[in-house]
Amino acid sequence: MSGLRVYSTSVTGSREIKSQQSEVTRILDGKRIQYQLVDISQDNALRDEMRALAGNPKATPPQIVNGDQYCGVWASGGGGGNVTGGH
After folding, report:
1. Is the distance from CB of 51 to CB of 61 less than 8 angstroms?
2. How confident is the model at residue 72 (pLDDT cuts 50, 70, 90)?
3. 24 within 8 A of 62, measured Cβ to Cβ
4. What pLDDT, on the 0 to 100 scale, is given for residue 80?
5. What pLDDT, on a 0 to 100 scale, did the predictor assign at position 73?
6. Is the model's pLDDT at 69 over the cut of 70?
7. C-alpha triplet 21, 31, 28: angle, nearest 5°
8. Own/partner pairs, 26-33, CB within 8 angstroms, 24+ separation
9. Buried b / exposed e across 16-29, counting CB within 10 Å, b at 16+?
10. Prior bond to 57 cis, omega within 30?
11. Which DSSP letter does residue 36 get?
């Protein structure tokens, strides 16, 4: 696959996940960066794909991938978010 993908979920009870997903998409939209939003709640295979790319069987969204290159997880830290954990 090519292009930037943001793995997210439309079904979560976690306020933190919802907030992080919103922050990622807001920043990418604000910078006019094109990306594909992949909703892992639609298919367990998508969740498994996200976790395999992240190299973590317990990874949760949002996760960011560029092509087949894992970029990291979005981590907020008071002063804004950062992509962490990329290879």
Report:
1. no
2. confident
3. yes
4. 45
5. 78
6. yes
7. 20
8. 27/81, 28/4, 33/4
9. ebbebbeebbeebe
10. no
11. E
Which strands, in side-by-side order, build the sheet including 36-39? 36-39, 4-8, 63-66, 69-76, 81-85
Tokens, residue 72: 């990291």
Percent of the chain scoring above 90 in pLDDT: 77
Question: Which residues touch 21 (CB under 8 Å, ≥6 apart)?
Answer: 6, 8, 9, 61, 62, 74
DSSP letter at 3 equals S
Classify burial at 80, counting beta carbons within 10 Å of its beta carbon; exposed 0-12, middle 13-18, buried 19 or more.
Answer: exposed
Write down the pLDDT at residue 40: 97
Higher per-residue pLDDT: 52 or 87: 52
* DSSP 8-state assignment for residue 75: E
